[in-house]
Write a structure and sequence with these properties.
The chain is α+β, with helices and mostly antiparallel strands. The chain has 6 helices and 5 strands; from the N terminus they run βββααααβαβα. It has 2 domains: 114 residues, Enolase-like, N-terminal domain (Enolase-like, domain 1), CATH 3.30.390; 42 residues, no CATH class. It has a 3-stranded antiparallel beta sheet. It has a two-stranded parallel sheet with strand order 4-5.
């Protein structure tokens, strides 16, 4: 049995070359890409990782809350660990984003990729381009052309203009 021995939480900020105005919060200029990273370590030294996007320091203090719920649990008892995540969420701290770290550990313990733990087989995944900012229709067309020239056959459009006609023109 492998037990959870240590949980480390990190807030990571990666500077961007230019300001980014995400379509989902266009009034919130971003000068960096931020995410929270959790590292869970078992008593036998196996490490698992998971991350989630963040805006600021939402996870500050989360380690003090989640550690008592998880330390010394059998990392392979996914039902119990998920129950603990639910309990933590019930008091206002959504922590389900940490679950992939446990599957990461379980896969390493069984010497299998995580998809095999779920009964799946390796298969190619076609990548797609994803836009992020609201743009004028003409700019969006040019962006789509550039992504196509880079080899992408599919693009995810971010349309959240205040003018629905502009959104329709982009599509």
């Amino acid at each position: 049995m492998s037990k959870i021995a240590k949980i480390s939480l990190y807030h990571v900020k990666v500077p961007l070359d230019e300001t980014f105005y995400p379509s989902w919060v266009p009034a919130y200029p971003q000068t960096d890409n931020r995410f929270d990273l959790v590292r869970i370590v078992t008593d036998d030294g196996v490490e698992g990782y998971s991350a989630r996007p963040s805006v600021n320091y939402e996870a500050k203090g989360l380690g003090h809350l989640i550690a008592p719920y998880l330390i010394d649990l059998d990392v392979t008892d996914t039902d119990l660990v998920k129950e603990r995540f639910c309990e933590a969420s019930n008091i206002g701290f959504p922590v389900h984003w940490m679950e992939p770290a446990l599957w990461d550990i379980k896969g390493k313990l069984e010497n299998k990729p995580v998809y095999e733990l779920f009964g799946q087989k390796a298969q190619p995944v076609e990548l797609y381009a994803s836009t992020g900012e609201v743009k004028e229709p003409e700019e969006r067309v040019e962006e789509a052309r550039q992504r196509y020239e880079e080899g992408f056959k599919t693009i995810k459009l971010r349309i959240h203009d205040f003018d629905v006609e502009k959104d329709i023109k982009q599509v």
